[in-house]
Each structure stands twice: as C-alpha cells, then as structure tokens.
Amino acid sequence: MTPEEVLEQRRQYLIDRDFEGFVSLFAEDAVLELPFAVQGLPDRLVGREAIREFSLQAAAHAIAIIDLRTVQLHRTTDPEVVILELVTEARHTTTDVPFQATCIQVFRIQDGKIKLFRDYVGAHSVPDLN
C-alpha cells in the first residue's frame, strides 16, 4: 500500500473503532510519539504490542471519532515520510458534545506499515477524556 492508502485505511479503522485493524497497520518495531501528550497519556510507545495496549485502553475513553479530515498532506523528499495537517472531528460520548482537535502528524511508512507516527495534537482542544 502507498502511504496515502495506509493513512486512508487508518482513518477508516479509527472511525469504525476497529482498534485491532488500526494496530495491524504498524510495523512490529513501530514507534508512536505524542510530544504534546495530554495529562495521563504516554509521550512515547515502542513496539506494536505497546501500541495495541494503548489503543485498547483508549477505546474505553468517552471519545468517538466522527472523521479525520486531512487539511493538507505534504510529501517530503524521503518517499517514506509524509506530514498531515489534520482536524479530528469527534464527540464526547458521555455528554454528546462535539469538538474538533487540530494536529500535525508525521509518519514514516515503509513497505505498507507505519514505522513512526508522531502526533503533535493541539491538546487544549481535547476535552477531559473521562
């Protein structure tokens, strides 16, 4: 799969709340980094199993993703690296209040698998996750 196809599959898995599918997109030795992580979230996960555990815990949060809207996709001189300007449209499932979270995401996608996912999310736009 091309990087764009991988990212579209990721989008669909997250909208569908298919966290096992989401995790399957990562390489065994993948790294997920959240440099601006909100309180209580790790800033770095190493390995598909750590990403799986984190993703399954995230599934319990009161957040439902409605869409991941790409504002702009930037190709780099390295064909494995893409940068997304993204808006996550979601709602808090307990209060049913919708919200948007903006972010910039950097991916290294090699042989159809995510090797690196660095998410610079605007943490101020994410409501309390409980």
UniProtKB/TrEMBL annotation:
<dbReference type="InterPro" id="IPR032710">
    <property type="entry name" value="NTF2-like_dom_sf"/>
</dbReference>
<feature type="domain" description="SnoaL-like">
    <location>
        <begin position="16"/>
        <end position="115"/>
    </location>
</feature>
<protein>
    <recommendedName>
        <fullName>SnoaL-like domain-containing protein</fullName>
    </recommendedName>
</protein>
<dbReference type="Pfam" id="PF12680">
    <property type="entry name" value="SnoaL_2"/>
</dbReference>
<dbReference type="InterPro" id="IPR037401">
    <property type="entry name" value="SnoaL-like"/>
</dbReference>
